Amino acid sequence: MSDAAEAPAAEPADASGDASPGIPVDDDYLGEPGPPLDHHAPFFVGFVGGLGVLVAVWLATQIQAIGSTLMLIVVSLFLAAGLDPAVRWFERRGLGRSYAVLTVILAFLAALALFIVAIVPVIADQVRSLTDNVPQWLDQLQRNRQVQRLDDEYDIITKIQDYVTNGDFAGAIFGGAVGVGLAVLGALFNGFIVIVLTLYFLASLQTTTSAIYRLAPASRRDRVSRLGDRIVRSVGGYVSGAFIVAMCAGISSLVFLFVVGLGEYAVALAFVVALLDVIPMIGATLGAVIVTAIAFAEDWRIGLACAIFYLVYQQVENYVIYPRVMSKSVDVPGAVTVIAALVGAALFGVVGALLAIPTAATVLMLVREVWVRRQDTR
C-alpha cells in the first residue's frame, strides 16, 4: 500500500487556518447551534403575550359575529336534552334507542302540527278580537274620574287609542310593513332551524356526548362521562319539568277563564300564561297581570275573580307543583336562581333567563363534584 493511502486524514482548519479536531469542514456543516431562546426574556414574553391578546380579541369578535347562530344551537341542545327523558322512558319499557328516538320525534312533530292547525287560528282570532275591543275598554277607562283627571292633563287615553286603532303601532315597533314581514320571516326561519337542530341533536345525543367524552384523558374519562351524563339528565329534567309546569298553568287558566265567562279570549290568554310561565321569577306574575287587566276591562267582578285565582294558583305552583316536578332535576338555592335569571336576562334577554337556571345548576354541580371534592382531599 502506498504512503499516501496510509497517511492520516488532514486535520480541519479553523477560520485562522489552525486545525480544530472533530469539526467537519465540508459543505454540509452549518455551524454549531447556539443557545436556546430565553423564554423568560422580556421581549419574548411581551411578544408572545401580545400575540395571545390579538388572537383572543379576534376570536371574541368572531364569536360575537355568529352569536345569534350559537344561540340557536344552544337552545336546540337544551330542547334536545328536554326531550331525552321521553326517549329514556321508552327505552326503560323495552324499546330500542333508535325506535324510541323515532317515536319521540314523530310525537313531537304531530303535536307541533296539531298546534299549528288547530290552536294557532283560534289564537289569531282571539287576539284580533282583543285588539278590536281595546278602544271600547279605553272608553270605559275614560269614564273613571281619576283617569279623566290624568287624561285631561296629559291626554293619555287619546294617545293610546290613536296609537292602537290607526294600525301603525306594529310598523313602529318593527320598522314599517317591510320590517314586519322580515321579522315574521326571520322568526319562522329561526323556528325551523331550531326544530331541525333539536331533532338532529336528539337523534345523535349519545353519539355526540360519547365523542366529547373521548376528548378527556383515559384516566379521567369514566368520571367525565358520569358527570356529563348527570348534567344532561339534569338539564333534560329541568326543560321537561318547566314544560309540564307551564302546561299546568295554561290548562288551569283555560278552564278557569271558560268558567268565569272569558271564553271569548280563553285560548289566547291561556297560551300567553303558559308561554310566560316558562320565564323564571317574573313569568307567572306577568301572565297573571295581563289576564287580570283584561278581565277587569271586561267586568270588575271577573277581574276580581282572576286576581284571587292567580294569587292562590301561584302559591300552589310555587309550593306544590314546582317542587314535585323539579325534585329530581335541578338543585339550585333560591338566591342563586334569582341571580342567575337576572344575569341571563341582562346578557341574552328572555332566552338567557330561560337557560340561566339549568346553567347555574350545572356550574354548581361541577363546583361541588370537582373543586370542592379536590379541596376536601388536601
Short note summarizing the structure:
With 378 residues, this protein is mostly helical.
Describe this structure in words.
The chain has 378 residues and is mainly α. The protein has helices at 3-6, 42-65, 67-92, 97-142, 145-154, 156-165, 169-174, 176-203, 205-213, 221-260, 266-277, 283-298, 300-326, 334-376. The longest helix has 46 residues, at 97-142. The termini are far apart. Residues 1-13, 15-19 and 172-177 have low confidence and may be disordered.
- What coarse outline follows from CA principal-axis ratios? extended
> Mean of the pLDDT scores?
78
Low-confidence parts lasting 5 or more residues at pLDDT below 50?
Answer: 1-13, 15-19, 172-177
Biggest beta sheet summary: none
Order of helices and strands: HHHHHHHHHHHHHH
Count of alpha/pi helices: 14
Share of β-strand residues = under 5%
How many strands?
Answer: 0
What structural class do you assign from the helix and strand content? mainly alpha
Report helical residue fraction. Answer: over 70%
- Termini separation comes to 78 Å
Radius of gyration: 34 Å
